[in-house]
# Entry
Amino acid sequence: MNVNPVESLVIELLTEIQLLVTEDPVEITRATVPLRDLAFFDSLLGLEMTVALEGRLGITIGEQTAFSDKETREPLSITQIAQRICDAHAGVGV
# Structure
């Protein structure tokens, strides 16, 4: 599994949601930390997005949410999210 397509998928999903919930969209990049930088994004949406990513990627993430560190609960950037998913699923397509 490669990081770039996973980053692109996360950005795509976040952009779709943002267009539905706000009239004032912000640019979403690989450096964006959804739980900190996106006003519409909260922990519940993090859970829903994790499930959506599992479905689109055909994997089980196994964490409650892919958007924060399991131990420290620190919010993660899109690049960090994608890298963790790829590290945990090396050998899987995408």
Summary: The chain has a mean pLDDT of 91. The chain is about 50% helix and 0% strand. The two ends are 5 Å apart (CA to CA). The chain has one domain: 3-88.
